[in-house]
User: Which sequence fits this backbone?
């Protein structure tokens, strides 16, 4: 690994990386996670011909579920029933990733907070209002932090 004082011998040029291809999460309870991402958060689950050819067998066997975000990023859930449960204290992050953030129209932000509450999902932080917008942080069924955020409303 390079330290901050070392020089890279070669680098990718700005713009070589075009977009996030997919995000993959290991989940302990596939059904709970499919319900959370598909029903509560309203992401579209890929089925039939929508499933990438490389994942058809894993999806058919129930080991993987794929969702698509409104901007086209694929969220892959990989079932790992033997996955160690997260620390009972959700403040103790169990990976180097901090959270996954979804953008929402500012007019729908309060509705999202209501949906989280109605589904008895514990809110970790917020809702908070910052110069960068509003956000609310909560956990998926495996303890991974999710944020729903919006830009500040135009005045």
Assistant:
């Amino acid at each position: 690994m390079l330290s901050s004082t070392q020089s890279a011998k070669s680098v990718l040029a700005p713009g070589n990386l075009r977009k996030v291809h997919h995000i993959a999460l290991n989940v302990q309870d596939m059904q709970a996670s499919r319900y959370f991402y598909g029903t509560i958060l309203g992401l579209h689950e890929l089925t039939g011909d929508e499933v990438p050819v490389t994942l058809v067998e894993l999806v058919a066997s129930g080991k993987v579920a794929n969702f698509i975000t409104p901007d086209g990023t694929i969220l892959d859930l990989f079932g790992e029933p033997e996955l160690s449960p997260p620390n009972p204290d959700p403040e103790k992050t169990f990976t180097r990733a901090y959270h996954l953030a979804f953008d929402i129209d500012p007019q729908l932000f309060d509705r999202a907070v209501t949906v989280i509450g109605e589904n008895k999902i514990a809110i970790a932080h917020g809702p908070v209002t910052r110069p960068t917008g509003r956000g609310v942080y909560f956990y998926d069924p495996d303890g991974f932090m999710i944020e729903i955020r919006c830009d500040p409303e135009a005045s």
Summary: The chain has a mean pLDDT of 84.
